[in-house]
Write a structure and sequence with these properties.
9 helices, binds S-adenosylmethionine
Length: about 260
């Protein structure tokens, strides 16, 4: 199993889910060992009012495992990048917070997910959100152009997490914030799970031990890394894999 095969399996899984959402407005279930990531309980981590203001078809297309906006402290006028934006729920909520002077960019590598998100954005009539095709290991943005990076249950899907953290750090302005929800583990996963493509697509096979995750972020240059364990024990047996909210900063430039 190589990186290319993992990416193809992930793209296939989320393309299929996007088409299902488009056809039937299907609701996601827990992704453990099944066809995709997403915990139907995770939607409860958002403020009831802000989610209730969105059409059901958009809110129920969430495949996340937490609420990356909870600790992002978004402000009017900020530029936000969502890594692996899926159907766009977090982008739409972020767009409200940054207002008309702000901007939200959703990045996703799966064409059918982008079509779903763009259709949702058109339905909502939001002018400060755009969706771009690309991979978070090679973010298609110039250096230091983003105030905040968010992501919901996506980084675990990458076979090259060093590149993801390196690219996120590069795209952030100095002093910029990183606020993600992701699946991590409390101890190493059994090799049989690591080698299973369905487990990767289900957001478990590629999950790192929390200590390794933090170490990679630190190596990329992030500081003030904080972990907020949330979402219970996860879906994959005695707390081995669980959802965490991870926040960090790109250091401010010395003159600032
Ligand atoms: C589990 S879903 C989460 C979607 C969304 N964040 C949410 O909360 O509903 C993972 C998404 O990340 C995208 N994705 C996976 N790996 C990616 C990568 N390397 N670069 C960009 N997008 C990726 C998939 O296409 C999919 O839309």
């Amino acid at each position: 199993m190589d990186d290319r095969q993992i990416k193809e399996a992930v793209r296939e899984t989320y393309g299929e889910l996007a088409r299902r959402f488009q056809d039937a407005g299907a609701t996601a279930g827990c992704g453990c060992g099944s066809s995709g990531c997403g915990d139907s309980q995770a939607i409860g981590l958002y403020g009831l009012e802000e989610v209730a203001a969105l059409p059901d078809t958009i809110a129920s297309a969430s495949l996340g495992c937490g609420n990356p906006l909870a600790l992002a402290s978004l402000k009017e006028g900020e530029t936000v990048l969502d890594l692996g934006s899926g159907g766009g729920l977090d982008c739409f909520l972020a767009a409200r917070r940054v207002g008309p002077t702000g901007r939200v960019i959703g990045l996703d590598m799966t064409p059918d997910m982008l079509a779903l998100a763009r259709g949702n954005a058109a339905h909502l009539g939001l002018s400060n959100v755009e969706f771009r095709q690309g991979e978070m290991e090679a973010i298609p943005l110039a250096d230091a152009t983003v105030d905040v990076i968010i992501s919901n249950c996506v980084i675990n899907l990458s076979p090259d997490k060093d590149a993801v953290f390196r690219e996120a750090f590069r795209a952030l302005r100095s002093g910029g914030r990183f606020s993600v929800s992701d699946i991590v583990t409390s101890r190493p996963l059994p090799e049989i799970v690591r080698q299973n493509l369905r487990a990767w697509s289900g957001c478990v096979g590629g999950a790192l031990e929390l200590t390794a995750y933090v170490e990679k972020m630190r190596a990329a240059g992030f500081e003030r890394i904080e972990i907020d364990r949330q979402g219970g024990d996860g879906c994959c047996g005695d707390g081995l894999a669980f959802s965490a909210r991870i926040t960090a900063f790109k250091p401010s430039a010395p003159a600032e």
